Design the sequence.
């Protein structure tokens, strides 16, 4: 089972056509093939929670990685909340670096997780079974080469982009050496082996402008470097696929990407502009005011100088931002001191843990005002979210259940008035209200209003408030691409194109290929009709 995290098939196909990804080309020709649609639940932004657990959000009630603390009016990021799907199987599993794969909850699983995953969902350090395995990996192969660029902010600096791209490429080759050893030498008695490659995710988010000719930053000096880096990273991923097939040539291969990547249309409006707009509407005050040079950008696309992190630039445009930076630094130093005092290790044994992490993003800067607001922009990584401060649900609720529907309607109507001043087009796309019929039942990771954004808005224009923003891009890429892909190759699999499947069919299909129908009550298998001895 090979997961290609953040991998865009359209880009890979161009490289395959040019002969630069021969192993994926060969796998494609030898496979049963499907296009993969995960759009039903993609906005939860928990793809690998869904893969590792085998649960859709409507089953796990995990609608976002961000949890609302109703007592403190704070936001935290929550990691793995469910045992791996492999815990349901009577199969020996070996795993390397699958995100949200809580190996502590599967006694039959061996391997290492948390080495170099993008959003591992497991806190800091490595987790392994047996306990010594993490240290074996570190002593033989070292730490992840690109550990400083898992979440890199790169586009203002071509040199930094090149450095990050080189290390991410090298990290894939490093990962390939580990998997060759782990699956082929160290643990050979396995029924199911799982490898997830994270580099495309970590690279595409800050480098998408390099391969998207329509992106507003495609003419930036870093774009050419970004494209070169992405090409080399995809070639390294191709080498990884080739190595996987060499390790166990008789194994059935399930290789997939859940969706493609695209332009980032959410960081600026979801993390900053919508929370600021809600703050202004509810309090009459202003926290974020764009810098004059951002407002004066001729094309409406502010540029940050190389060496200035996005978070620092945004704090520099917020009232009290300097004090926020001081407080952030103090909290980081305090956390480091606590880890040092507790004797924190770079690796952990497979012990059951509760994974929750502090969340710092622009939207959380408004948290002090949330108890006094009827509704507020809730922190999110993917789309715009508004949480109603509801009596009977929130500790300091202001909106009564009788008023709830009216307040929701008010803010849905408001969202529909917003424009992108750079394009003149509507800034908001789809809007839905997931808990309208029963708001008191909303989980801590749900919002009352969820909205998608059109284009790549860097400012929001309100008919009464005026323009909020602009602000510079944070990441240039995001999970806004098209369909993913699924390749299944094996001795008994019929080759060919078989249309489209749901991304939530993949794990049940892996279970069936591993000899178990434990998840087939959730979805229909996509493989069984194509099992054939004549493959």
Sequence:
């Amino acid at each position: 089972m090979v997961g290609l995290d953040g991998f865009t098939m359209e880009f890979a196909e161009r490289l395959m056509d040019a002969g630069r990804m021969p192993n994926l080309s060969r796998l494609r020709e030898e496979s049963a093939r499907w296009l993969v649609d995960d759009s039903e639940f993609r906005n939860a932004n928990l793809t690998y929670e869904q893969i590792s657990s085998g649960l859709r959000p409507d089953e796990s009630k995990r609608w976002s990685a961000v949890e609302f603390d109703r007592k403190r009016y704070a936001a935290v990021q929550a990691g793995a909340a469910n045992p791996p799907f492999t815990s349901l199987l009577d199969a020996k599993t070996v795993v390397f670096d699958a995100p949200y794969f809580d190996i502590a909850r599967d006694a039959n699983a061996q391997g290492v997780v948390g080495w170099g995953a993008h959003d591992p969902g497991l806190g800091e350090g490595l987790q392994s079974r047996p306990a010594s395995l993490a240290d074996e990996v570190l002593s033989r192969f070292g730490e992840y080469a690109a550990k400083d660029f898992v979440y890199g902010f790169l586009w203002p600096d071509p040199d930094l982009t090149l450095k990050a791209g080189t290390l991410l490429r090298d990290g894939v080759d490093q990962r390939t050496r580990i998997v060759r050893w782990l699956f082929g030498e160290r643990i050979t008695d396995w029924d199911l082996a799982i490898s997830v490659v994270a580099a495309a995710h970590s690279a595409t988010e800050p480098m998408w402008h390099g391969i998207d000719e329509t992106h507003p930053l495609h003419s930036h000096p870093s774009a050419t470097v970004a494209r070169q880096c992405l090409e080399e990273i995809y070639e390294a991923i191709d080498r990884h696929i080739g190595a996987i097939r060499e390790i166990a040539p008789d194994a059935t291969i399930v290789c997939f990407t859940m969706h493609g990547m695209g332009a980032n249309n959410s960081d600026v409006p979801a993390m900053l502009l919508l929370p600021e707009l809600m703050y202004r509407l509810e309090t009459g005050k202003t926290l974020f005011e764009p810098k004059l040079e951002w407002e004066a950008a001729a094309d409406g696309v502010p540029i940050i100088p190389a060496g200035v992190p996005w978070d620092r630039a945004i704090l520099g445009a917020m009232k009290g931002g300097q004090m926020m930076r001081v407080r952030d630094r103090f909290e980081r130093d305090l956390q480091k001191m606590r880890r040092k005092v507790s004797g924190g290790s770079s690796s952990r044994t497979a012990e059951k843990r509760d994974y929750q992490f502090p969340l710092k993003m622009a939207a959380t800067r408004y948290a002090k005002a949330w108890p006094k607001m009827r509704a507020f922009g809730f922190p999110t990584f993917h789309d715009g979210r508004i949480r109603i401060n509801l009596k009977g649900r929130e500790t300091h609720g202001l909106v009564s259940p009788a008023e709830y529907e009216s307040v929701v309607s008010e803010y849905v109507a408001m969202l529909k008035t917003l424009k992108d001043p750079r394009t003149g087009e509507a800034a908001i796309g789809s809007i839905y209200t997931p808990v309208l019929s029963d708001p008191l039942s909303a989980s801590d990771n749900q919002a009352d209003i969820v909205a998608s954004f059109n284009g790549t808005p860097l400012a929001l224009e309100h008919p009464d408030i005026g323009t909020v923003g602009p602000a510079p891009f944070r990441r240039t890429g995001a999970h806004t691409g098209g369909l993913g892909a699924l390749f299944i190759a094996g001795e008994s699999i019929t080759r060919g194109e078989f249309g489209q499947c749901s991304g939530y069919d993949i794990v049940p299909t892996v279970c069936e290929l591993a000899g178990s129908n434990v998840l087939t009550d959730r979805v229909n298998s996509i493989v069984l009709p194509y099992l054939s001895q004549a493959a």
Summary: The chain has two domains: 2-264+478-530, 267-345+358-474. The chain has a mean pLDDT of 92.
